[in-house]
Amino acid sequence: MKHEKPLVHAGVSEYHGQLMVIIPKRGPCLQCVFPCGLSERRPFPILGPVSGVLGALEALEVIKLLTGNGKVAVGKLLILDGKSLSFKVLDVRRNPKCPVCGGSKK
């Protein structure tokens, strides 16, 4: 939050993935959406096609950020289920009591 630089986050595990764009003062941070952190399982298999899809979506969001062309997915959490080949987009909000960004105002 110190430098107020955008972060395009993606995570993958097995057949599943998630994507979120974080822009300080414009939307929630990772702490807002995942206050308890993300659980890690062992072993942690990652399927190449799932990481490829999420990597391509990350690149698309970065291009939109850099060019200002298109609507960036701030305040959205995209979830990929590779087993059913389905996408869900959830609206996520900033937690006003978040220890990371709660004091930030737009």
- Trace the largest sheet across and list its strands: 1-2-3-4
Number of strands: 4
Shape: globular
Strand and helix order: EEHHEE
Number of helices: 2
What does this structure look like?
With 106 residues, the protein is an alpha+beta fold. The chain has a single domain (7-91), classed as NAD(P)-binding Rossmann-like Domain (Rossmann fold, 3-Layer(aba) Sandwich). The chain is built from two helices and four strands, in the order ββααββ. It has a four-stranded antiparallel beta sheet with strand order 1-2-3-4, covered by helices on one side. The longest helix is centred in the middle third of the chain and has 20 residues, at 48-67. The radius of gyration is 14 Å and the shape is globular. The two termini are 13 Å apart.
